[in-house]
Amino acid sequence: MHTMIAPVMALVAWSLLIWLWMYVRRLPAMSKAGLKPQDAAFPGSLDLLPAGVRQAANNYNHLMEQPTIFYAAALAIQVAGHVDGWALRLAWLYVALRVVHSLVQVSANVVALRFLAFSLSTITLAVMVVRELVRVFGG
Fold first, then answer.
1. Cβ atoms of residues 104 and 23 within 8 Å
2. For the domain with range 5-137, which CATH number is right: 3.20.20.70, 1.10.10.10, 1.10.260.40, 1.20.120.550?
3. Could you tell me the pTM of the whole model?
4. pLDDT tens sequence across 77-109
């Protein structure tokens, strides 16, 4: 398949899986802590929940941040008709690195490993974007 849609949809699906994971962990933890849904009305109000519960929520938030640039870049590459083997490899590498980042964050949460996965994914995204800019602006 020579399309950027597959890696985009894979990361969307992964984000939804993390959303589900977040609520599977959060709702029982809130109940155990005696928190009502309204107690979550303000930032920081769920900080008393166990770390593992907060890690899933934090990772979901992370998947709503930088990956939005990935979605825009991947779809721009697709629309421009510039999808090639390198674009696809970079897109799938970005997705894989974001999955690794998620798995580290929702499990052991070793910051050095998370930072490594985040940094490598950011570099991969930057290469995707610079490569497309060169193609678009003919440099």
1. no
2. 1.20.120.550
3. 0.94
4. 999 999 999 999 999 999 999 999 999 999 999
